[in-house]
Design brief:
This protein is an alpha+beta fold. The chain is built from two helices and ten strands. The chain has two domains: 2-80; 94-178, Jelly Rolls (Sandwich).
């Protein structure tokens, strides 16, 4: 019986060693046993790489979609944008003199700079006048026009400037008439 026990102990030892060798061989890189080193060294980097590739691909698609939307909106804005008005013949300031009591009336919007003399605002409206763009204020009927201030006469609706000294010199941009 001692012999049988020795044979059984030898077989048990052989089976244990064989099992350890088999298990050790099966935990190679080609057929890993799930271990922390496999997860952190192989699985996580592989998953991270796949996720990053998917995110990059999605970002490229989103960028293309955004660029195409921006281009389409730019084209739509160009269609809706009114054409720039052509420059009038009086695109530059013209220096003119106006005699006492005469009035400069615009035929459309007009810009005026009083260079010398005294002038006052003429406006048929109680609450509307000329825009003194230099002083950023409204000039109403009867107000004096300041020297060297850019004054806007917004439209040809009766608003004007009248000479109050023997002769005034003004610089005018836009169409006008002296009456």
């Amino acid at each position: 019986m001692k012999k049988l026990t020795k044979i059984m102990a030898a077989m048990l030892a052989f089976i244990t060693v064989f099992t350890i060798v088999i298990l050790a061989d099966s935990s190679s890189d080609s057929d890993p046993l799930v271990t922390l080193s496999y997860i952190s060294g192989v699985l996580v980097p592989s998953v991270d790489e796949k996720i990053q590739k998917t995110v990059d691909d999605n970002n490229k698609e989103i960028e293309k979609l955004i660029d195409s939307k921006i281009s389409a909106l730019k084209e739509e804005l160009k269609k809706d944008e009114p054409a720039a008005p052509a420059l009038s013949e009086n695109a530059e300031f013209e220096a003119i003199s106006i005699a006492f009591g005469k009035t400069l009336k615009p035929k459309a919007a007009c810009e005026v700079i009083l260079r010398s003399g005294n002038a006052r605002v003429v406006s048929p409206f109680e609450n509307q006048g000329l825009s003194d763009l230099t002083a950023a204020k409204e000039l109403y009927d009867g107000n004096s026009v300041s020297l060297n201030h850019l004054v806007l006469i917004p439209r040809a609706d009766g608003r004007a400037i009248m000479a109050m000294s023997d002769v005034i010199w003004v610089m005018v941009r836009g169409e006008y008439e002296i009456v």
